[in-house]
Amino acid sequence: MADAPRPPLERLAYAVSHDLGAPVRHIGQYLALLKPRLGPLDPRAEQYVERIEAANGRLAEKLQDVLRFSRVMTQGRPPVPTDAAEAFDAACARLGVRLGQVGASVTSEGLGEVLADPAQLNDLLVELISNSIEFVAPDTAPVVTVRGHATAAGRRIEVRDNGIGVQGHVGREIFDLWRTLHPAGTYPGRGVGLALCELIVERHGGSIGFESEPGAGSCFWFELPSKSA
User: Does residue 108 have a pLDDT over 60?
Assistant: First the structure.
């Protein structure tokens, strides 16, 4: 049986991110070849070249982001009964070096079983835990607790932290692609992780949300169908 055709938007996202990648790389390569041949430049011309390089780098990053999004839909596997505790352990293993660098404490309890693509559940937990350990006040050791409990719709998993919290009045737009809440350079990230989380959860027929208080941490949660639902 032939594979079902991909929706037009998915095909467009893949084509844009994949096919435009080569020209963007070529721009960067030719800039690198051109710069030594230009000789000394006046300060304004030097600034122009630097801006071209920076803009091309940002475009390359955004194309990679779009490609990541398209892969959620085009390369995802059917949901199967998955031990969320095993996905949590795998996520912590992937983040092991960073967790050690920041002295983070990450624990879990009651995660149970959900219907999920194991790889995407792992990606989901990696993104949420990463946010929790990055958005903390200076000189604060991150403390993250991942808890699960059964609900009428399946199983809800909460990722709670002691971070800086979400600043200002922010709603669902926090999950928008390339949405950042902090001035550039103050915290890492390009506003991709939460948007990716929302897409993964929606693909599984679940829901995602958050609760937060500035200065008192955040709790990002997602709910997925479970084997018993």
Answer: yes
CA-nearest of 206, 114, 219, 200 to 160 is: 219
- Residue 28 CB-half CA count within 13 A: 14
**Same domain membership, residue 151 and residue 69:** no
Whole-number Cα distances in Å, 77 to 94, 117, 192: 20, 6, 21
Residues 114 and 196 placed together within one structural domain of the fold: yes
CATH code at 50? 1.10.287.130
Q: Is 158 helix (H, G, I), strand (E, B) or coil?
A: strand
| Max Cα-Cα span within the chain | 70
- Of 74, 97, 118, the last residue of a domain is 74
pLDDT tens by residue, 154-205: 999 999 999 888 766 666 778 877 666 655 555 555 667 888 899 999 999 9
Distance CA(132)–CA(165), nearest Å, equals 9
**Has residue 229 got a pLDDT over 50?**
no
pLDDT of residue 25: 85
| 1 confidence band (pLDDT: 50, 70, 90) | very low
Q: What is the Cα–Cα distance from 77 to 80, expressed in whole angstroms?
A: 9
Q: What is the dihedral of CA 135, 131, 21, 41, to 10 degrees?
A: 10
How many separate domains does the chain show? 2
Question: Tokens for 81?
Answer: 């009964």
pLDDT, position 106: 94
Q: Final residue of a domain: which of 74, 108, 129?
A: 74
